[in-house]
Amino acid sequence: MQIVGQEVDDRLFRNAMGSFTTGVTVITTEIAEEVHGMTANAFMSISLNPRLVAISVGENARMFQYIKDAKKFAVNILSSDQQKESMQFAGQLKEEHEIAFSTYKGLPIIEDALAVVTCELHSEYVAGDHTIFIGHVTGVKLSQKDPLLFSQGKYRELKELQE
């Protein structure tokens, strides 16, 4: 099988993909009464009927095995005031701060998130060095807040356009 795109420089590819502005999520699950989380922006809605979402997790990430073992996960869509939470679960803080968790539909979730989607593992697909986990949605919580955004290697906030 010939792989198209091998001639594309890794840094150029990463920079181009980083130009796509995304929301920021923290994926959470629980194994043996211990909460695990990982910051991710590879998240999307797949289907309304049945309700399915997808997350992409690297094969070397600790969360990879946690999701496989737990067979369920929560997607915490972060609000604009949760940059510290994002950075902590991405391993970017020198000193961790206390994260307020609560439980929803049997899963640990981050309090005050913009939205939460809880899932049972529906299926998984290996795609290169990542696995795409498809989750069957079991619950949704939504708040009225602004989202935390990420683009070109930086956290961003929404700005209203002037007409």
UniProtKB/TrEMBL annotation:
GO terms for biological process: pyrimidine nucleobase catabolic process. One of its GO terms (molecular function) is riboflavin reductase (NADPH) activity. Gene3D superfamilies: Electron Transport, Fmn-binding Protein, Chain A. InterPro entries: Flavin_Rdtase-like_dom (IPR002563), NADH-dep_flavin_reductase (IPR050268), Split_barrel_FMN-bd (IPR012349). Coiled coil: none annotated. Residues 17-157 form the Flavin reductase like domain. Keywords: Oxidoreductase. Transmembrane segments: none annotated. Pfam families: Flavin_Reduct. It comes from the Bacteria. This is Flavin reductase (DIM6/NTAB) family NADH-FMN oxidoreductase RutF. The lineage of its organism: Bacteria, Bacillati, Bacillota, Bacilli, Bacillales.
